[in-house]
Amino acid sequence: MRILFITATRLGDAVISTGLLNYLIQAHPDARFTVVCGPVAAGLFQRMPQLDRVIVMAKRPYDLHWFDLWKQCVGTRWDLVVDLRGSAISLLLRTRARRIMRGGRRPGARIAHVGDVLSLSPPPLPVVWTSEEDRALAGTILIENDIIAFGPTANWAGKVWPAQYFVELWSCLARIFPNRKLAVFYGPGEAERSMAAPVLAIPGAIDAGGRFTLAETAAMLQRCALFIGNDSGLMHLAAAAQTPTLGLFGPSRSSEYAPSGVHAEWIAAPGPEGAAPISGLKPEQVLERLLSMMSGREETSCSSLENQELT
């Protein structure tokens, strides 16, 4: 059985789609999969089982990337084509069955829209795939247990919680949990590292960004006790790794892109959704929410906030 799975260009959307893909893997254990995605998301699938090929679709002028994809796929007789891009190409391939997600903005959570493609309710949660090598490398970077992870970057300035707020938040967390270590996650490239630089400057911070594959990053996130980060692909990856995750939202829509995971929560800046500046979300609000999340796992509660002042 051959299945073509066309997913997103952006990392966050691609992570959200992994739950549906994992459902298909489990439902069709003899199937072989070809996954189509954008360059940023390609590494997400490198460790998935039953994989034949990842086709990286880089955008070209006049939508010629879709023609390139058709040329690579038209020679195969597919048993199922799942198209989360809502493209016309799915109608131009030979297949026994096709499932196409309707395009355009719709109300509700993105993960629910993805589940609707196969009429799955509730939708399957995102997953990560890692290897022994990835997990071994993660152990050499994050040697300590009970590491707290920060994700201070995003692909749009409006999503970026001020770096100084991350610094202030760590100052409080370090006083409450003096034995915890901080790991800072960010994506490749100088722009990402520049955004993360003030947080990386925290004494003792572990640099866990920039130079790792997505599978290695997922393995490191699995070793963390907690992840706090902006609405980004890394936030979705942390939730998929089943790391307790708190997503920070400003003008992006939590109703559509809240993190999905067994231990995932979110907090938004006060104000109307889609318009509230993320700087309106203050460190003390995030700290209170974090301690509430951790109260079931730690010998602490929101009472730990007493006499704690942000510096």
TrEMBL record:
Coiled coil: none annotated. Keywords: Glycosyltransferase, Transferase. Pfam families: Glyco_transf_9 (PF01075). GO terms for cellular component: cytosol. One of its GO terms (biological process) is lipopolysaccharide core region biosynthetic process. One of its GO terms (molecular function) is ADP-heptose-lipopolysaccharide heptosyltransferase activity. The keyword Glycosyltransferase applies. InterPro entries: Glyco_trans_9, LPS_LOS_Heptosyltrfase. It comes from the Bacteria. This is Glycosyl transferase.
